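for the recovery benchmark. tokens below, seq after
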């Protein structure tokens, strides 16, 4: 399936430094996704999209560039990326499972100040599509332009946000300077996932095929209002691994000094406790794995990871989830142990950072060379427990 990447920084970055130049950039993943396990569809060549926010003088809505041309073969992407900067960027390469090959089906999707993308699939989609559509207010039903389950999920998110008492179409000055806020966006995302689960659980069956009906969904979502980013790594199962998702934060992101600036190995550096830059991606560069069935929020350059507590939540930290379902969809990536990470943090999979092994195990162990002890693959030297709800905070 697809791959996506999120960048949120205090300063603007040249798009090419994020999506073109790194050795394992999202452009490279469109044709050489080495950590993609779905050998039936080894390429993410069914179009791509880049969304980013411009200076306020140009308006609050994000700029979206999509194309059905494979990302590796689009000269316009290289031309634009080498001359465009932003402090908040979404990038997505697509391997279609629902919907035709068209610009309207390429992520990210946009409404007013909001931007949304998805990696995964909604279970028993053909059986719940009508019910999902009928559950929406007319304005969100009519807003869907393409045929993907992902865009319908965005419509469901917008509907959930409106049901919480907010107008998703609001722009400044009607919208506060800080946008909708992390709490509201996270709540709307939780409601969206709950509504999808309710629909798949109650999907009508015909004959005796109920036992063969796979109702599981893989819901790696990312949404932003230009101020806050909310991402999820989620599978509607208590025993299965979710599609891969990683995050990294630090003070600078760029090529290693000993490497050439194009096509080189990029790394995240942390010179202090700040998080001037936060990256979230489907495949690891210098990343920590997001625990399965979790919601990640980035606001004011602080990263918080909360569990999504529902019928598919498993509180036992020692529980091993099966990677079989996500692997069958090509959505689990095992971080190679040799991957270089920021100074002071061990290699992914070595106990110094939150990598996962080939079995989808996301629980780091011990304290890898130069690293720190881990719980659920999260660096405990910067983890803070929140009394109201278990969480991890990166600031």
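predicted aa per position
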């Amino acid at each position: 399936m697809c791959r996506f990447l999120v960048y949120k920084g205090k300063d603007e970055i040249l798009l090419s430094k994020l999506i073109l130049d790194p050795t394992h950039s999202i452009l490279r993943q469109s044709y050489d996704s080495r950590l993609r396990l779905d050998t039936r569809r080894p390429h993410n060549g069914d179009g791509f999209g880049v969304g980013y926010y411009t200076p306020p003088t140009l308006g609050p809505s994000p700029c979206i560039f999509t194309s059905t041309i494979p990302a590796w073969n689009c000269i316009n992407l290289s031309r634009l990326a080498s001359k465009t900067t932003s402090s908040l960027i979404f990038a997505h390469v697509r391997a279609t499972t629902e919907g035709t090959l068209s610009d309207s089906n390429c992520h990210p999707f946009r409404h007013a100040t909001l931007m949304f993308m998805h990696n995964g699939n909604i279970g028993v989609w053909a059986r719940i599509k009508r019910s999902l559509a009928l559950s929406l207010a007319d304005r969100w039903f009519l807003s869907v332009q393409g045929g993907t389950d992902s865009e319908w999920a965005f419509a469901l998110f917008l509907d959930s946000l409106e049901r919480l008492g907010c107008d998703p179409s609001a722009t400044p000055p009607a919208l506060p300077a800080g946008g909708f806020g992390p709490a509201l966006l996270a709540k709307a995302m939780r409601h969206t996932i709950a509504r999808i689960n309710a629909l798949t659980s109650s999907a009508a069956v015909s004959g005796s095929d109920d036992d063969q009906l796979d109702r599981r969904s893989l819901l790696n979502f990312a949404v932003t209002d230009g101020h806050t980013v909310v991402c999820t790594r989620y599978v509607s199962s208590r025993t299965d691994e979710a599609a891969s998702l990683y995050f990294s934060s630090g003070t600078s992101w760029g090529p290693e000094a000993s490497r050439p600036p194009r096509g080189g190995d990029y790394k995240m550096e942390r010179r202090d406790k700040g998080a001037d830059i936060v990256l979230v991606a489907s495949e690891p560069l210098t990343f920590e794995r997001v625990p399965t069935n979790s919601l990640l929020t980035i606001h004011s350059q602080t990263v918080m990871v909360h569990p999504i507590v529902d019928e598919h939540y498993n509180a036992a930290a020692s529980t091993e989830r099966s990677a079989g379902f996500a692997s069958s969809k090509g959505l689990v990536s095992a971080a190679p142990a040799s991957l270089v990470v920021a100074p002071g943090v061990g290699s992914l999979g070595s106990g110094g950072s939150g990598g996962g092994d080939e079995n989808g195990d996301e629980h780091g162990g011990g304290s890898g060379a130069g690293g720190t002890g881990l719980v659920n693959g999260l660096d405990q030297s910067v983890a803070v427990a929140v009394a109201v709800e278990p969480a991890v905070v990166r600031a």
